[in-house]
Amino acid sequence: MKKLTEEERAALEEQKREERIRKRRARLEKHAVDCPHCGKSVLDHMTKCPYCEGGLTPRGYRPVDEAKMKKIKSVAFIVGLVIAAAVIITVFALRG
Ligand SMILES: [Zn+2]
User: Which residue segment(s) compose the domain that 70 sits in?
Assistant: First the structure.
């Protein structure tokens, strides 16, 4: 395999960066909607237009629910405890 020169590597890096920027832009465009109040391009998860301050209805996006996250965390904690207990019991059972 041919070793890349410094310029070739830099060109490759540049290409990768452009690709990343293009992907990010495409993703943003997918979420772009026209503000019903001023017609400017806004993102569909926004609740307020940054240009005219008009109210928007968020679409296809749900903010992280704090209560739900806490519930998930506590369930994960209990599951972890059960697994730890099972491991400890198994170790004691094997010894005895
Ligand atoms: Zn607007």
Answer: 64-96
